[in-house]
Design a protein that fits this description.
It is a single chain. The chain contains nine helices and seven strands, in the order αααβαβαββαβαααββ. The chain is an alpha/beta fold. It starts with a helix and ends with a strand. It has one domain (2-151, 194-228): Rossmann fold, CATH 3.40.50. The protein has helices spanning 2-12, 16-23, 28-38, 56-65, 78-91, 127-137, 156-176, 179-191, 196-203; strands at residues 46-50, 70-75, 95-99, 112-118, 138-149, 208-216, 221-228. The longest helix is centred in the C-terminal third of the chain and has 21 residues, at 156-176. The structure holds S-adenosylmethionine (SAM). S-adenosylmethionine is lined by residues 2, 5, 9, 20, 51-53, 56-57, 75-77, 80, 101-103, 118-120, 123-125. S-adenosylmethionine binds next to α1 and α4.
Length: 230
């Protein structure tokens, strides 16, 4: 299963950023920067970005934490990470890259101020077990910052359903040469909990004591900022 996910991301890696811009009408970069701002990230903070892909969330953190901070980007898809490497060179950024399955990480306790995930949580094999591990890596009062898809309420839901069912796979075919990958991504988005339901599941973790939720695009995308108590 994870191997097929790796292969899928490898096949769409070249045009992944372009597709993100097209699908979100260019808003994805705004969502990332806004999320970092709302999470209260500051210079010198340490961040672990999981399922970092081509790195746009990691860069949004790096812009705030640098030069004293530390950003570590983890992904198991070498082709996605190669694009991140090129961007790091271009931006002269300092982001450490780890090519590994997020389920196999082993950091010391209390290492990071933030652990982040953008559009990754629903792809991981055991997302809630991962959340347990993340709580260990976080410092006391550390935060988990999650950007994930949701489904907007009516009347936007009708547009959203047509757009995701027909237009996104079509654009995936035209721009990324892979319709089924984008069908898969939309399919997982429609099955994964979002909003209060996801927050409720996250709150079952005894280390998470507060979750702030923000909707973007009437709920097509959600931001969750979870504060961890130890
Ligand atoms: C939808 S992309 C998101 C990329 C990036 N965070 C963004 O916002 O554009 C999901 C990423 O998670 C990675 N991924 C999925 N499962 C993973 C796992 N078990 N371990 C590490 N990376 C994983 C994929 O390779 C892919 O790059």
């Amino acid at each position: 299963m994870d191997n097929s996910i790796k292969k899928m991301f490898s096949s769409i890696s070249r045009n992944y950023d372009l597709m993100n811009s097209i699908m979100t009408f260019g808003f994805d970069m705004y969502w990332r920067r806004k999320s970092v701002k709302l999470a209260g990230v500051k210079k010198g903070d340490s961040v672990l970005d999981l399922g970092a892909g081509t790195g746009d969330f990691a860069f949004a953190f790096w812009e705030k934490t640098s030069p004293e901070g530390k950003v570590v980007a983890v992904d198991f898809c070498e082709e996605m990470l190669n694009i991140l490497r090129d961007k790091i060179k271009k931006k002269k950024a300092e982001i450490e890259i780890i090519n590994k399955d997020v389920m196999e990480l082993n950091f010391s306790e209390n290492t990071f101020d933030f652990v982040s995930m953008a559009f990754g949580l629903r792809n991981f094999s055991d997302p809630f077990k991962l959340i347990d591990n993340i709580c260990l890596y976080l410092k006391p009062q550390g935060k988990i910052v999650i950007l994930e898809t949701g489904i907007p309420g009516y009347p936007f839901k009708i547009f959203y359903l047509i757009y995701t069912k027909f237009f996104i796979p079509l654009m995936g075919k035209i721009f990324a040469g892979n319709k089924s990958a984008y069908e898969y991504l939309i399919n997982t988005a429609s099955k994964f909990p979002y909003g209060n339901e996801l927050a409720g599941k996250l709150l079952k973790n005894k280390n998470i004591y507060d979750i702030k939720i923000k909707k973007f695009f009437s709920g097509a995308v959600y931001l969750y900022i979870c504060t961890v108590k130890k």
